[in-house]
Design goal:
The chain is mostly beta strands. The protein has two domains: 8-118, no CATH class; 127-232, Immunoglobulin-like (Sandwich). The chain is built from two helices and 15 strands. It has helices at 54-64, 103-118, and strands at 8-16, 22-29, 33-38, 44-51, 70-72, 81-86, 91-95, 122-130, 136-142, 147-161, 167-174, 182-185, 190-194, 206-216, 222-232. A ten-stranded mixed β-sheet has the order 5-7-6-1-2-3-4-8-9-13, covered by helices on one side. Strands 10, 11, 12, 14 and 15 form a five-stranded antiparallel β-sheet that branches. A hairpin with a 3-residue loop joins strand 2 (22-29) and strand 3. The longest helix has 16 residues, at 103-118. The radius of gyration is 19 Å and the shape is globular.
């Protein structure tokens, strides 16, 4: 007899919010194999895959074993970011940023933290870095498979904050990556993006940089992606 097929242990989704809307998926199989698709937030976006360690998988199984149905509706005006967890017998839905100590909220926080860590295993992804001077950003392709991009609506923006986190200056403008329309870029491709001499960064200031562009996933769907990097003092 052949090996048994893996069954989905848990699926975590984060969707909604202001454009570009969150559109994240983390699927973990019962053998520890995972797939992560991330489009918004942090320095990396794209597709990530691999396997959890046996210890991490066991800890997750124990946590999910205590899961119960839960639905926490969002408060305030839309658009809302909603996080959901689905297992074989349970569904949890909680509005993001909800201050809850419930079991469902703890599971969501664990999976959110896990998804951050799993971006260390890129398959077809982009990564942005910002020079300590704040004068330029670099975007590059990482992973074993090419990343499919549409560069026509690429935009680079930043916000510079003072020592007390007051906004000093802000900008958002279209950029060119060297081509028009769609293109597949392999690992090693990189583009340097100047941010401007008007940025005066020092250790007491905070610079938040964002890069928006369209990424075509392996399913052929084009998603608006945003990479974000913070340099300098950071947030208190």
């Amino acid at each position: 007899m052949g090996a048994e097929e893996a069954v989905t242990l848990v699926e975590y989704r984060r969707q909604g919010g202001y454009p570009p809307a969150d559109d994240e998926l983390l699927r973990i199989e019962d053998d520890g194999a995972f797939l992560l698709v991330r489009t918004v937030g942090g320095p990396r976006v794209g597709r990530f895959a691999g396997a959890l360690s046996r210890q991490r998988l066991t800890e997750l199984e124990k946590l999910l074993g205590r899961a119960v149905e839960e639905d926490v509706a969002p408060a305030g005006l839309p658009p809302h970011v909603i996080e959901t967890v689905t297992t074989a017998g349970t569904r949890i839905s909680v509005a993001a940023l909800t201050k809850s100590s419930s079991g469902g909220a703890r599971i969501l926080r664990r999976l959110r933290t896990m998804s951050e860590a799993l971006t260390a295993q890129p398959v077809a992804a982009l990564q942005m870095e910002v020079a300590p001077s704040g004068q330029r950003a670099t975007v590059q392709a990482i992973g074993a498979e090419p990343v499919h991009l549409d560069a026509d609506r690429a935009e680079l923006g930043y916000d510079l904050f003072g020592e007390g986190e007051e906004l000093l200056t802000s900008a958002n403008h279209p950029i060119r990556l060297g081509w028009t329309g769609r293109k597949a870029v392999d690992a090693g491709w990189a583009a340097e993006l100047p941010l401007g001499p008007e940025i005066k960064l020092n250790p007491k200031r905070t610079l938040s940089v964002r890069l928006d562009l369209d990424v075509i996933d392996s399913d052929g769907v084009m998603r608006r992606a945003r990479m974000a990097v913070v340099v300098g003092k950071g947030w208190t």
